[in-house]
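Input record, target 12 of the design panel.
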């Protein structure tokens, strides 16, 4: 069995399949970890979801912000920032609705392998969480809400830009605010203030920003950053910048901006990429 990690696919089905062929991925034997953001932007979001659902037994997935937008809109939670025509179009397909309701909405926000000492989430691991149990239970709490009935009200809250919670308040948050922080930490974070509170607007790479206050999340001290290999996606502007420590691996190499889709092989520690045609 080989263990692969792939970055944000964003609907680039042809490139995704070509990359799997290039590494001889075999869904009967191998395992495919995916950093989330399966859909939007690219031309074939529907085919990506159909295919992943068909090989779901060999997939270890985390939800990205775009996947959450899809779930939001499937519940009828409308917000100006998520009324993406690609997503609205996807929801006209009954098989896609079925895949969301029976599989996608049950996916976690973090994946963890205790033996290999691996953590993976869409945006990374916030410096405010310094304990593996906090991380796993936060993911579980959010997963329970995302997959429950009557959850539209939670999505309405997190999709409202007025309520962006960026401070965990040492585990004192409750209700909507707690849910909002968990979603922001796992799926939207890039930069943090020196005390670890999240800043989610700045997207550029560290060399291209003017702030002397903001730091990438992985540059704020956290004992977990030394103990685990951490895979994340979400931040395509980091590509090739050599910003992260060796054991913190950003896999979103910007396929949806005409750059690359990247896969990492755990056993050989090798990267393979394919350029995406947009
Ligand atoms: Mn993302």
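The sequence produced for target 12 reads:
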């Amino acid at each position: 069995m080989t263990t692969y990690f792939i970055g944000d696919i964003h609907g680039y089905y042809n490139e995704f399949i070509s990359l799997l062929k290039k590494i001889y991925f075999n869904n009967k034997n191998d395992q495919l970890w995916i950093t989330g953001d399966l859909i939007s932007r690219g031309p074939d979001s529907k085919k990506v979801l159909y295919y992943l659902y068909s090989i779901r037994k060999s997939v270890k997935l985390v939800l990205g912000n775009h996947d959450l937008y899809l779930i939001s809109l499937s519940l009828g939670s409308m917000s100006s920032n998520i009324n993406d025509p690609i997503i609205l179009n996807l929801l006209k397909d009954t098989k896609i609705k079925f895949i969301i309701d029976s599989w996608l909405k049950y996916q976690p926000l973090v994946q963890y392998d205790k033996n290999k000492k691996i953590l993976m989430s869409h945006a990374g691991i916030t410096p405010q969480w310094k304990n593996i149990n906090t991380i796993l239970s936060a993911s579980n709490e959010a997963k329970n809400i995302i997959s429950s009935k009557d959850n539209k009200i939670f999505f309405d809250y997190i999709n409202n830009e007025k309520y962006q919670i960026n401070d965990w308040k040492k585990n004192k948050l409750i209700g909507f605010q707690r849910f909002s922080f968990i979603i922001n930490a796992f799926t939207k974070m890039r930069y943090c203030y020196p005390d670890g509170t999240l800043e989610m607007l700045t997207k550029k790479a560290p060399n291209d920003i003017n702030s002397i206050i903001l730091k990438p999340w992985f540059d704020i001290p956290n004992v977990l950053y030394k103990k685990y290999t951490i895979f994340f996606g979400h931040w395509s502007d980091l590509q090739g910048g050599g910003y992260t420590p060796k054991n913190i691996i950003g896999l979103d190499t910007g396929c949806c901006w005409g750059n690359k889709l990247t896969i990492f092989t755990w056993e050989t520690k090798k990267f393979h990429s394919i350029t995406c045609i947009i």
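The mean pLDDT is 95.
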